[in-house]
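General statements about sequence and structure are easier to judge against a single worked case. No coordinates are needed to read the tokens, only the vocabulary itself. The sequence in question and its structure tokens are set out directly beneath this paragraph.
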Amino acid sequence: MNIGALIFPDMNQLDFTGPFEVLARLPGARFHLLWKNKKPVRDIHGLMLTPTTTLVCCPPLDILIVPGGGGQEALMEDDAVISFIRQRASQARVVLSVCTGALLCGAAGLLIGRPATTHWAALDLLALFGAIPSAQRVVSSGNMITCAGVTSGIDGALAAAAQMIGADRARMIQLAMEYAPEPPFHSGSISAAPAHLLALARRQFAPITAKRLKTARRIAIKLGVK
């Protein structure tokens, strides 16, 4: 089972490593870390990740993982990356986007007419790609599974595992990981966070959100989305 994860500079590593922890446990899993070349890339917080396969040399994939993070913005109009996502998604059994990786899938035209989710700060942008924005943590539509922010990639990967090998075996993976979150605070969503913290977070995200909006509007014109 070939599983490929796009990695790129300034990504959020947990968008990839969360799903990796789940999907690497699938029977016969062969994981490919994909980028334009094999030079190490640095995630947004400085963790180094090393590609194992280039986009050009990537084998056919059963599962494609598209993470997000600040570096996603630079790839929105990158023809090589967007074409790769579009082509491989047409053949994969599951395409799993995490956080703002959904915007890359949207730029590839994969979300037109589909319900989808992404990080709350970018959720409204999905409509510009012809998607139907959903505030759910994980949304499945056809072979697409879109996840909300960062940590939701674990949830989405478990949903992908259930599609590939059945719910009981996916539950076994969850049990082996002891994935039963009990966070010390209940501010992990916009509905639960105190108003003053949400306002602060919105201000922090405002610059990158403004850039994403401009880019998404340009792509909407190319996709013919009104």
